[in-house]
Design goal:
Length: about 500
């Protein structure tokens, strides 16, 4: 196999040879070929058609660089198909899509329907603990395998590789908007939030366990002592068994509401993806907001929430008295007519997306404004009011619907934001309407956003900063109270009436 092509993403750093010996071992899945015609030219033509209408392909890179990246992908992908290596094809595609610096363009783990591709995600290669990246430090947050790992320990090496180098090797495969690497580090943390963890997928393909089948991990304990451990890897079922969040499907409440002793209510919302849920989230939320009459404040924790539906709108609606358009972007697309190849090799949940370019207004430079721009309709005011102080806890995971909510929250002037800089990007993001494009030879599906959202005024290439920056500190692990929650609650108490809350003048 031509590793020179398939490891092209790593070859651009000093890590080029770091994982070369293991990255594509015979254990990796091979295209079965049953009833399958391998036609690299067709796959590449589909890919070119998709990139021809991608709304953000030139937003964060020059035209010449975009062409070089696409050519590099084609060489890597073609080499993988010639050898029948679906793992190589998947990595080549993932690395290329990451060069677009679009947080919604990726070979979505949840949308794959080809057996060869899905098999990549179920291999016994996972690390048996949870962790998060603090800068380039890998900090253990939970021992999920009963192996005696101490939360708060720092992982210094994994299988002989410095943790920082492992992070650097996986970042080129990880989605994010613009230069917002905080989002990429959040995705590469493992905290039991997702059925498929981004780190697990790419670590399993790029840096699986060594020849003895074990992960050799060098740790520095919170006491400062150094230990070396040989840990058995776990599979997908074992990873999921450790998850604590409520599944997306079913009718169980997925959020929690706590009435604290200080009179502040804490609403924790770890996810807003409600399309598979039978739970009446709106009724649940409205009932709890109705109970705030005597509260000293409301703290909304969305730090672990990427997005989904616009579940934050009912909260904003109770704080305003006129319609609020908190979305600071204009919509642009890069086609008037959908390429036939994409119609033939994609699916979507709304066939009207294929006609999104009909009647679009030219903006020049290969961009158009959709004729009917119904993105982010203004939030209308509710007749019911929240009169106590409201705080939202935010962080780098917020990059889709929660990114939109945080924009609206700031525009309303009625929220105080605590935590860390969000994901997403103030300059431009993409989304709103999608095709799920399938490359027929490899069977890999990737998400193709059709709408680009571009800031109406010049903005920095970063997420939204909180009003009060409280970056995560490993010393917080195992603490009885969450310092970010406590800071927000203290602000609520200090800002409101000790008895009934302090009414705010809505605008």
């Amino acid at each position: 196999m031509n590793r020179r092509h398939l490891l092209l993403g790593l070859a651009r750093s000093s890590l080029a040879g770091l994982f070369a010996a293991r990255a594509f071992s015979p254990a990796h899945a091979v295209l079965h070929g049953t009833g399958r015609t391998i036609d690299a030219d067709l796959d590449i033509a589909v890919m070119r058609a998709a990139m021809g209408i991608h709304p953000g392909i030139y937003r964060y890179q020059e035209t010449a660089a975009a062409h070089r990246e696409l050519a590099a992908f084609e060489a890597s992908y073609r080499a993988a198909l010639q050898r029948g290596h679906v793992a190589g094809a998947y990595l080549a595609l993932s690395r290329y899509l990451a060069t677009l610096r679009c947080g919604h363009s990726y070979a979505n783990f949840f949308n794959q329907n080809d057996d060869d591709v899905v098999a990549l995600f179920d291999r016994k290669t996972r690390l048996p603990f949870w962790f998060r990246w603090v800068g380039d430090r890998m900090i253990v947050t939970r021992d999920t395998g009963g192996l005696g790992l101490t939360p708060g320990s720092e992982v210094e090496r994994v299988n002989g590789v410095r943790a920082a180098d492992l992070l650097a090797a996986l970042m080129p495969f990880t989605r994010g908007d613009g230069s917002n690497d905080g989002k990429r580090r959040a995705l590469l943390s493992v905290q039991g939030h997702e059925d498929y963890e981004t780190f697990d997928i790419f670590q399993g393909l790029v840096a699986p366990p060594g020849g003895d089948g074990l992960h050799h991990v060098a740790l520095r304990l919170p006491t400062g002592r150094h230990v070396d451990l040989a840990l058995p890897p776990i599979d997908l079922a074992q990873r999921r068994a450790a998850m604590t969040r409520v599944p997306d499907s079913g009718d169980r409440p997925r959020w929690t509401w706590e009435e604290r002793r200080d009179g502040v209510c804490l609403l924790t919302m770890p996810g807003w993806a409600m399309w598979n849920s039978q739970w009446n989230w709106r009724q649940w939320l409205e009932e709890r907001l109705d109970s705030l009459a005597g509260a000293r404040g409301l703290v909304i924790d969305i730090r672990d929430n990427e997005g989904g539906d616009d579940c934050g709108d009912p909260i904003v609606a109770r704080l305003i008295n006129r319609p609020l358009a908190g979305w600071p972007f204009e919509t642009r697309i890069r086609f008037t007519q959908m390429p036939a190849l994409l119609r033939d090799h994609s699916t979507t949940w709304d066939d009207r997306f294929y006609a999104l370019g009909d009647g679009a207004i030219s903006l020049g430079g290969g961009e158009w404004r959709p004729r009917e721009d119904a993105v982010q309709n203004a939030i209308g005011p509710s007749s019911k009011r929240i009169t106590c102080p409201v705080a939202a806890l935010i962080g780098p995971t917020n990059s889709s619907a929660t990114f939109g909510f945080i924009n609206a929250a700031r525009a309303s002037g009625k929220f105080r934001l605590f935590g860390e800089t969000t994901g997403g990007n103030r300059r431009s993001i993409n989304g709103g309407a999608f095709l799920f494009v399938k490359l027929p030879s490899s069977g890999i599906v990737f998400d193709l956003p059709l709408k680009g959202y571009v800031s109406r005024t010049p903005q920095p290439d970063r997420g939204i900063d909180p009003d009060v920056q409280l970056p995560f500190d490993p010393a917080w692990i195992g603490a009885e109270a969450d310092p970010v929650v406590e800071a927000a609650a203290q602000w609520c108490v200090a800002s409101g009436n000790p008895r009934r809350g302090s009414p705010q003048t809505a605008s």
